[in-house]
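#onboarding

Welcome to the new folks! Below is a worked example of what a typical request in this channel looks like: someone posts a single protein sequence, and someone else replies with the predicted structure as tokens. Don't worry about understanding the tokens yet, we'll cover that in week two.

Example request:
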Amino acid sequence: MDLDLVAEVLAREPAYRARQVWEWTARGACSYAEMTNLPIAARTLLEEHAPFSTLTLAHEAKSADGTVKALFHTHEGHPLEAVLMRYRDGRRSVCISSQSGCPLTCTFCATGQMQFRRNLTEWEILDQALHFKRVEPIDHVVFMGMGEPMLNFDAVLAAARRLPDLGVTHRRTTISTVGWLPGLTRFVDEVDEPIRLALSLHAPADALRSEIMPVNDRYPVENVLAECVRYFELRRRKVFVEYVMLDGINDSVEHAVELAELLDRRIFKLNLIPYNPTGMYDGSSRQRIAAFKDTLHAAGFSPTVRLTRGRDIAAACGQLAATS
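Example response:
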């Protein structure tokens, strides 16, 4: 739903018509025909000149655990993916993309091996969430799909600010970054809403992190963590640290000790992520993850291990790699 285009098409209508269109859309309407408080002539104009979605659904896969992965195409045919994760406690969380592909080439991430096409618009980002909203209510959104959100800061923030209309509060919205410093600095300085910040760290020191995340050469750990600390000091909200567990790479007890020494447990909340292999690495064993977690516990942290969702449909962490 491109609301800018809607307003242009309805330029001769009262200004509130575009608001009515958005209200219907945000509630989960599936077509203009459902918008019964719009004149028939206005609905006809919209059907002819403003596509109901900026994206075309190309394929949808459903996991045994209830996870749904959707492959979309933009109007030029660029691919992107979004994932709906259903949990037993009733949560409905959507993982959405901010770019088609990603230019940052993290070695463990399938998206990073794709060709980077372009940033997505505010409306293309929202249409991923709206696709699932039309099926059932959603209450959490994470910007952890394809792309680096801080490289598309303006569109990501504009989309995040509209999510409460869909039933997703700011406190249930999370924007993740690998540490792209210009965008992260803007996030700290400009975002007053209680939107959560997550940092994809994945290594406790620069040398190892640079091997698996080339962006670290440009923005080292010390500089990125300094911005995260500033976020905490300004907002008094913890930063979530995502740490994907790569067998024999970053998952030793020694790495856990380094991580505990690096991070302030008052500021950072650790989330350990079982890795879903995409070809270059193997995922850590349960035993190695448990030992890593126990070491962090002993250092005073309360780490969680993310529940893996959608592995059988390549919808889990690191696996999003859409093909057209």
